[in-house]
Specification:
The complex is a heterodimer of chains A (319) and B (425). Chain A has 319 residues and is of the alpha+beta class. Chain A folds into two domains: 111 residues, no CATH class; 180 residues, no CATH class. In chain A, strands 1-8-9-10-6 form a five-stranded antiparallel β-sheet, with no helix packed on it. The longest helix of chain A has 18 residues. Chain B is of the alpha+beta class and 425 residues long. Chain B has a single domain, classed as v583 fold (Alpha-Beta Complex), CATH 3.90.1700.10. In chain B, 40% of the residues lie in helices and 20% in strands. In chain B, helix 3 packs across helix 4, helix 3 crosses helix 5 and helix 5 packs across helix 8. Chain B starts with a helix and ends with a helix. The chains are: A alpha+beta (319), B alpha+beta (425). The interface between A and B is large, with 38 and 37 residues.
Chain lengths: 319, 425
């Protein structure tokens, strides 16, 4: 059965990674799959190509053995003129075998042959918990804040302040993951970017809690939120990505940090969080912050401590 | 420190580091015997390319080169005895970079080997490198047969005195030495990228030194033999280009708050980097295997992981980063012209600036990407991509191909973590 899906946007970051890393035969695309109206491309050694909202700034050359460029707007095979590339793509899936990417508003068409349809799998954490201590988590939060600052990945102070206020409000009673999550959900849609910063904080927070719940490290039920509720607050693409992160369908980025946290490996946790920084503009910084807040809660500590350590590390003042 | 101040400090430091890198004036000023001129190269000690390594983890080509150097020095008369001396620690081996030395591939330098002496009058630094043996079965690729040792001895007995007399003549002519930055800048306009392709640079080098070489008063037969050796070895200036790059990156090293990479190197097992503000601390990861073109009879399964100090050229803003200047390199390293151009463009995303003096005609004489910034590597997920020769994984065989290699991201992440520890928390 032929399915035609309209994707929302593919940003410069995603396009750059997709095109550059598939230039060479030792950077092959391992899996391509369609999920709802998004395209997901897993590159060997380079993880998941995600979608961002940055405008295109440079030209890209395509040289992928199994991606055939049918026509291009500038008539030069293999060379994309950024001015001609619309941010919109149409994604067509034919019987799970071939995919086509077409730009909307111009003539670009790319056929991807032998694409493998793939649903991301999730494996829960197992083993004995040897959580980091609160001091260690705070130290990771400070270091991560610093690294996020020097790589321009810190969410805007307005977002940080809003997150702080929400946590503070939800802590009038003993803070629980569900209570903090409910508070954070009020911020969905706040910030700039295709995935607004607050969305990333919420995703990082909920993905971490859910991974810990699945592993039996935190008591309670998984956090969840309906797509309808999310789309009432943020754009559709961000809502879909949030939902996939929260349900742990797309949790590659958070996995390492959570696993290190449960193993008591502070260095590993920081390194995993640093890996997130290549996502979007400040998406990685925001998701990492959400993850850190969640780990504080898992330790029955005040989550504000983690936020404040991150802010301190970033050299910011929220006063 | 406030976020804006952190970034300002880093920006100021990186500007200074890269400015010094570009303004460095590396000159070939002299020749000498390694054990006499290189600081702390005494006794039964050898230097090797890349980060530190222990004998049990030494790769085949490095093992072969170390064995060859022990034989060359006369510390052992068979490979087995040489290996025993290395294994027991009677012969010590250390990385080149802390000694201000660079060497391609295995990069092994032993005390009695002649070396080029480079000096940067602008910043007062010295750097050293060995003489290039040519292609094929050579010590730097791990070969240590009789022909390899004989060639090294000829280089010490014939080539070295000619080059020593030549540089003496150049200085006698009132020049401070041979300005190698000029040669690199010109060669980039003549189809070299100055890592794996030095065809133009070799012609420029010979043009500069020949008049002096032939007026040294040394036996004409030896001078002609030396001239022919250099002329027939199209990669001869590589070591000199690397010493020049070492001086450029040395000028950028040791700047507080700077996140600029000042060493990228490999030993055939690990690759490692230094960062300007983090002293001589190594940040390492397993060295990747280059993707390349294989000499007849060889394939990827024969290849050793990446090896050599030669990526100091990219660290200084040329070599693989300037591939767009050298379309002819493609047939050697096995890629496409489009890739060469794309790679140079891509490297702009992880570097601080465009070089003032090294420019690329095809890109409208834009400067080459200069000053790898660990922050940009982590933020973009793009890592330095270079071209390189490939050694056989077994000792004693030599070069089996050439190709492209992309460095792993881990050392850059760990370095950023350490940077945060030093300055942030």
């Amino acid at each position: 059965m032929r399915a035609e899906l309209t994707a929302l946007a593919i940003g410069a970051e995603a396009l750059r990674k997709l095109l550059f890393h598939t230039h060479r035969d030792n950077h092959v695309v391992e899996r391509v799959w369609v999920f709802r109206n998004t395209i997901n491309v897993l590159l060997r050694n380079h993880g998941l190509v995600t979608i961002t909202a940055k405008p295109l700034k440079a030209s890209f050359t395509i040289n992928i053995p199994w991606i055939e460029i049918v026509t291009l707007p500038n008539g030069f095979k293999g060379l994309l003129n950024p001015a001609d590339v619309s941010v919109h793509i149409i994604l067509t899936n034919e019987s799970g075998a071939d995919l086509s990417l077409c730009s909307k508003g111009n003539e670009l068409t790319i056929h991807i042959n032998d694409a493998v349809m793939w649903e991301p799998s999730y494996s829960a954490l197992h083993g004995e918990a040897a959580f980091l201590t609160l001091d260690e988590v705070l130290s990771v939060a400070r270091a991560f804040g610093y690294v996020a600052a020097v790589t321009d990945s810190v969410p805007h102070p307005r977002i940080l302040l809003a997150v702080r206020n929400v946590i503070k409000e939800s802590a009038s009673e003993p803070p629980t993951p569900a209570r903090v999550f409910d508070g954070l959900l009020k911020l969905v849609g706040l910030g700039h970017g295709l995935t607004p910063s607050a969305d990333d904080v919420v995703s990082g927070f909920a993905a971490t809690i859910n991974a810990l719940v699945d592993g039996g490290f935190v008591k309670g039920r998984r956090l969840s939120v309906g797509l309808r509720e999310l789309t009432s607050r943020t754009n559709l693409l961000s809502a879909i990505i949030m939902r996939e992160l929260i349900t742990l369908n797309l949790n590659e980025g958070i996995d390492g940090a959570v696993a290190s946290f449960t193993r008591g490996d502070a260095g590993g946790m920081l390194e995993s969080l640093i890996t997130l920084l290549s996502l979007g503009h400040d998406s990685g910084g925001s998701m990492g912050l959400g993850c850190l807040i969640a780990t504080c809660l898992a330790l029955d500590a005040d989550p504000l401590l983690c936020l404040d350590a991150f802010v301190e590390g970033a050299g910011l003042s929220l006063v | 420190m406030a976020s804006s101040s952190i970034k300002e400090e880093i920006e100021k430091a990186n500007k200074k580091a890269v400015e010094r890198m570009m303004e460095s004036e590396p000159h070939w000023v002299d020749m000498g015997v390694a054990g006499k001129v290189i600081p702390d190269l005494k006794g039964m000690k050898l230097l090797h390319a890349g980060p530190p390594i222990t004998w049990d983890r030494v790769s085949g080509p490095l093992k072969g080169a170390l064995i060859g150097a022990v034989i060359y020095e006369g510390w052992a008369d068979t490979p087995e005895r040489a290996e025993r001396l290395l294994e027991t620690g009677e012969v010590v081996f250390e990385p080149t970079h802390p000694h201000r030395v660079v060497g391609p591939m295995a990069g092994v330098v032993s005390p009695s080997m002649p070396v080029f002496i480079f000096y940067d009058p602008k910043f007062g630094n010295y750097a050293y490198t060995n003489m290039n043996e040519g292609l094929g079965k050579v010590l730097r690729y791990g070969a240590y047969g009789k022909e390899v040792i004989d060639r090294l001895k000829w280089m010490a007995e014939v080539l070295y005195p000619v080059l020593k007399a030549t540089i003496d003549e150049i200085r006698r002519d009132g020049k401070p030495g041979l300005n190698f930055k000029n040669i690199i800048a010109q060669a980039l306009h003549m189809g070299d990228e100055c890592h794996n392709r030095y065809v133009a640079a070799n012609a420029l080098l010979l043009k500069e030194i020949s008049p002096y070489m032939f007026s040294t008063g040394i036996d004409r037969k030896d001078v002609i033999a030396a001239y022919n050796f250099i002329a027939r070895n199209i990669i001869f200036p590589l070591n000199m280009g690397m010493a020049a790059a070492k001086l450029m990156t040395l000028a950028a090293h040791g700047i507080e708050y700077s996140t600029i990479v000042t060493v990228m190197t490999r030993n055939g097992t690990d690759m490692g980097i230094w960062v300007s503000s983090l002293g001589e601390e190594w940040f390492t990861a397993p060295a990747p295997i280059p993707k390349g073109v294989w000499f007849p009879g060889y394939s990827e399964k024969d290849a050793n992981p990446d090896i050599g100090d030669s990526s100091i050229t990219e660290t200084a803003g040329f070599g693989g980063f300037a591939m767009a200047a050298a379309p002819a390199i493609i047939s050697y390293v096995g890629s496409t012209v489009e890739f060469a151009i794309e790679n140079t463009k891509r490297m702009y995303e992880i570097t601080y600036t465009k070089h003032k003096y090294f420019t690329i005609p095809y890109l409208g004489f834009q400067g080459t990407p200069t000053g790898v910034d660990i922050r940009k590597v982590v933020k973009t997920g793009i890592t330095p991509t270079i071209n390189t020769g490939v050694a056989h994984k077994e000792p004693g065989i030599g070069q089996v191909g050439a190709g492209i290699v992309q460095f792993p991201i881990e050392p850059f992440k760990v370095a950023l973590r350490r940077f945060a520890q030093k300055y942030g928390i």
